[in-house]
Amino acid sequence: MFLSRFFKKRPEVPLDPPEQLSILAVCLSLEDRFLLERLADRHGWNIHFVESPGGGFTLASKYLFDVILCDRNQPGYPWREVLDHLSERSPRSCLLLVSPLHDDYLWGEVVQHGGHDIVVRPLRESETVMAIETARLRQWFDAPCGAAARK
After folding, report:
1. Of the candidates 29, 33, 78, 21, which has an alpha carbon nearest to the alpha carbon of residue 53?
2. Which CATH superfamily is 20-150 part of?
3. pTM for this one?
């Protein structure tokens, strides 16, 4: 009798749905956009695309984004300055640099300028999801990213 009550199925408690991840993508190529849109549909992310770093600065100042993806090869803007401005305007966001190359020196520079990690181009689904979900985990554990991590 005691064991039957102990192993009795407990009523299921409805869980709150997780917050939708909000992503800002600055100056990404058309191929990268297509992949990110597909991933956003599949994983339930809310993603915004902007064509210029200036548009990214404006949106990052007005709205809170969990993750900001920024292209390394932007005409007219050095990527270091773009990362500096984005991390100042959105200090709680995790900045990911999209680059055709990845090495320890570049990663060190990205972190020094307020970034979190590098996503290698051409974007692959598994690596992109892993980088974005890692950034989401930092948000959940309230670990600072970007400019907040440097202070």
Report:
1. 78
2. Response regulator (3.40.50.2300)
3. 0.81
